[in-house]
Design brief:
286 residues; 2 domains
C-alpha cells in the first residue's frame, strides 16, 4: 500500500505491477461473467472491460463506461492538478491548446505501462488502435457516465460526446433506518461537534502517523476528535485523550452531519459525503 499511495510513482506501480500481469485472467473472468448479459458497466481501472465489450459487442453486449471523478476525463479545458507536479496548474492561463499538447504527452509517455493491453488486443485479432486504455481508450462509444456532481466539474468540449453526468452515486453501506453504534452515538451527542478524521477505504491502509497528528491538531484547536481508523490496529495511536474517540468504521452519511469539520484523504466518495453533509472539509493530500 505504501507503493500504491506514493504520489509520484503510485499510479505506475498500480498499472504495471498490480493490473497488467493479470490482464489476461481478468479478460477471461469478465468474459465468463458477461455470458448472457445485456450490459457491461466498467470502472476506469478494469482494463479488460473494453476488450470484452469490443469482442462481445459483436454478439449484442452493450457497454457503458464510468468516470468516477473529473480527472478521469483529463480535459484540456478544465485540466486536473497532477499530484506529483501541482505547480503545473499555473499553466492553465496558457489555455486549452497548450494543455491539450501537454496531456497528449502524458498519454504517450505512459503508453508503455499498458503494453500488455495492446498485446492482448493483437491476440484477440482486434483492430490496432492508438488509444491509451488509461485515457481515451477506456470510454465506451455508447454511453459514458460521469458519476460526480456538477459542483466539482461541468461538461467540457473534449468530454466524450455520449457522456451523461449523473451526480454522485452516494452509498456507504448503510440503510436509512440503520442505527449507529451506541458508544459512537453517545460520543457524537454528548459534547461539542468533533472534527472527524478519516482516510477513506484505501489510504487508511497506509496511515502512517496521520491519526496521532490528527489528535495533536485537535488538541491545539481545543476541539474534540472522532477518528475513523479502519481495521489495522497500528492506526490506533495508543491511549486516547479525553475528547477523542476512535472507531474502525462508521457510515459517513450518519456521522458527517455531526462534525464541525471533516479532514480526509480527498477520495471521491468521502468528498461526496462531506458535501452532502454540508460540513467544512479539508483534504490532507494523502
Amino acid at each position: 500500500m505504501k507503493k500504491v499511495m506514493d504520489l509520484r510513482n503510485g499510479p505506475e506501480y498500480v498499472i504495471r505491477e498490480l493490473l497488467m500481469p493479470h490482464l489476461r485472467n481478468s479478460y477471461d473472468d469478465v468474459t465468463t461473467a458477461c455470458a448472457g448479459a445485456d450490459l457491461l458497466v466498467s470502472h476506469p481501472l478494469t482494463f479488460a472491460a473494453p476488450l470484452v465489450a469490443e469482442v462481445m459487442g459483436q454478439h449484442g453486449l452493450a457497454w457503458a463506461s464510468v468516470g468516477i471523478a473529473p480527472s478521469v476525463f483529463l480535459s484540456a479545458f478544465d485540466p486536473p492538478v497532477f499530484a506529483p507536479f501541482p505547480g503545473l496548474i499555473r499553466l492553465r492561463i496558457l489555455g486549452a491548446g497548450f494543455y491539450g499538447k501537454l496531456l497528449e504527452n502524458v498519454k504517450n509517455s505512459t503508453r508503455s505501462w499498458v503494453e500488455p493491453w495492446y498485446q492482448i488486443r493483437a491476440q484477440l485479432r482486434l483492430p490496432s488502435t492508438t488509444k491509451n486504455p488509461m485515457f481515451d481508450g477506456q470510454f465506451s462509444s455508447q454511453l459514458v457516465l460521469a458519476m460526480f456532481s456538477s459542483a466539482l466539474a461541468k461538461p467540457q468540449p473534449d468530454w466524450p460526446a455520449n457522456t451523461v453526468q449523473t451526480g454522485f452515486p452516494l452509498y456507504d453501506g448503510s440503510a436509512d433506518d440503520e442505527k449507529l453504534d451506541s458508544e459512537l452515538s453517545a460520543f457524537l451527542t454528548q459534547g461539542d461537534p468533533p472534527i472527524i478524521f478519516t482516510l477513506g477505504s484505501a489510504a487508511v491502509m497506509d496511515a502512517g502517523d496521520y491519526y496521532s497528528e490528527s489528535i495533536n491538531a485537535a488538541k491545539q484547536l481545543g476541539k474534540r476528535a472522532l477518528l475513523l481508523i479502519g481495521s489495522d490496529p497500528r492506526n490506533l495511536p495508543g491511549e486516547l485523550p479525553e475528547g477523542v474517540a476512535a472507531f474502525q468504521y462508521a457510515p459517513y452519511s450518519k456521522v458527517f452531519p455531526h462534525g464541525v469539520a471533516i479532514v480526509h484523504q480527498g477520495g471521491i466518495g468521502t468528498t461526496a459525503q462531506a458535501l452532502r453533509a454540508g460540513r467544512p472539509m479539508l483534504s490532507n493530500g494523502c
